[in-house]
Amino acid sequence: MTLTPTPGQTVGPFFGYALPYPGDSHLVPPGSPGSIHFHGTVFDGLGNPVPDALIEIWQPGPDGSAIRRAGSLHRDGFTFTGWGRCGTDNTGHFSFATLKPGGKRPLFALSVFARGLLDRLFTRAYLPGPDLTGDAFLNSVDAARRDTLIAAEEADGFRFDIRLQGEGETVFLHFPGHRPGTLSQ
Questions:
Q1: Which pLDDT value is given to residue 181?
Q2: What gap in Å lies between CA 31 and CA 13, rounded to an integer?
Q3: DSSP letters for 115-174
Q4: Contact 150, 128 (CB under 8 A)
Q5: Which of 122, 121, 138 is nearest to 130 (CA)?
Q6: What is the CATH number of domain 14-163?
Q7: Which residue has the higher pLDDT, 5 or 67?
Q8: Lower CB density within 10 Å: C or N end of the chain?
Q9: What are the sequence ranges of the domains in the chain?
Q10: Which candidate, 84, 104, 106, 80, places its Cα nearest to that of 96?
Q11: How confident is the model at residue 22 (pLDDT cuts 50, 70, 90)?
Q12: Comparing C-alpha atoms, which of 183, 120, 134, 125 is closest to residue 158?
């Protein structure tokens, strides 16, 4: 008996067909007051860009509060939901128009879907600047790898590159009860 893989078992041509939607990467309209550019590139284990990955972000509002508003899949140009989705382009680049997250230790929570992954990967992109020494999760990460979790500030926002394997591999999180993503060989 041959079993056919389902989207939960492998990723394939599903990204471009079923997951993108109008305004998916625009949590706020680009250029609107307070908007920033959060972007980066996804790299594989050999350092090559991944042109068919999908990135999701969740973030608090500028005041640090958790956002609990409907409307992420039907952008109206006014409601900030704190959630977005963006596919990478042919150069592995992703880009979001959003607001700067607030709070004591502002961060973006990210989910990565990519070819070869059996399940999505989770990570964080902390913003530089605030005192990050008190963050329990960041302190639990080997000091030599912490920088893989900190975005770089730029004039119009922040850059956060994601390395799926190899040198400089991004630290990925494991949630109890969730099977972590693994790269297929």
A1: 47
A2: 32
A3: TTBSS-EEEEEEPSSS--TT-HHHHHS-TTTGGGGBPEEETTEEE--EE-SSTTPPP-B-
A4: yes
A5: 138
A6: 2.60.130.10
A7: 67
A8: N
A9: 14-163
A10: 84
A11: confident
A12: 125
